Amino acid sequence: MIEIENDVPVLRQISVRAVMEYLLHAGPASRAAMAKATKLSKQTMSEVILILEERGWVRPCGLESGKVGRAAMNYEIADDLAYVLGMDVGATTIRLSLVNLRGAEITHYETENNSQGGIDLVNRLCQLKNDILAQQQIDESKLHSVSVAIPGVINQKTGALDMAPNLKNMSGFALRDTMQQAFGCEVLIENDVNAAAIGEYWRGCGQDDHSLAFISLGTGIGLGLILEGILLRGAMGAAGEISYLPLGGDAYTPESLRQGTLESVLGAAGISQRYHFAGGAANTPVRDILNRYADKEPAAIVTIEETARTAALLVLSVSLMFDPESIIIGGNIGIRPELTERIRYYLSNCSPHPILLKSSTLGSQSVLTGAVAISLNKLHNLLFGLPDLSRKIPLPKNL
């Protein structure tokens, strides 16, 4: 585990933070370039670099080139001193990404989720973590934290998982504490759609937005909200659980109470069922229904038009309640252009004002990207931030 030293005076900590933030975003630079960018004096810059070199966080990386006169030494972040691991745990697939201190990906791995949930899932994830570190020959002490993005509501105080009908044996399971005990490092748990919103905000189509909403349409449905740069979780961690919105069906049926009224209409199972009611074959995958829609099959047309009509009402509701700069549609169903085109059409007929509706640019990697961002952001601010400084160090977006 990485040890955090706090024996540097506060004013010097502010200078250290400024230098590390610059190096995280700009890459290797000379002392003169860093002093100019951070507005620190040459003496202060020399003292800061000395502190960071002694603690191993920066290192010389060669001389400046292309300039007349004496070449200056460049410095870079020692990005191999700390790592974080992001995990996207879905109903059918597990994705992992190991990144270094700067956020550059070291390795990426995907595998089938064939666990039985509960402790069996924890053991599976722990083994995957151990395998990745061994393959990359990285000492476990350098792994600062693991972020897990998973469907369901996470109680941020207890780390327990709830409202996760698409995962086996996970409702009420103390996921965070069980994983921390097994992993031997800090484990951060986040709702998968919240993580997708963070991913798009960091490196996707929401990079230029201060506020955005991410709607995921897939096996299940969900909403992630970032308002003025802050993820909205709600008092119980259930903000964005749109599955239970009373749209598209009867909210008082046992099925709606178990799965959610809106999810029973917009989730994969609901779309497949609607297709069957329209005359199509039972249990047809949504991807096939969308392909048949393109071929103008009558049952597929009825199904996708009704799905788009209901989804447009959802988008409109989110826009009216939260007024984000943009609304991003993702998920393995939501990213299909045939569907988003029809959602835009129905929006134009029911919205009193234009709504900027975007398609996810990260696609299936949005959740994993967000999981990585959560741990990486915490690591940067723990190492180089200040607890009394309200503005957090932003993550580097381009590597």
Automatic annotation (TrEMBL):
Lineage: Bacteria, Pseudomonadati, Pseudomonadota, Gammaproteobacteria, Enterobacterales
InterPro entries (alphabetical): ATPase_NBD, ROK, WH-like_DNA-bd_sf, WH_DNA-bd_sf
Family membership: Belongs to the ROK (NagC/XylR) family.
The name this protein goes by in its record: ROK family protein
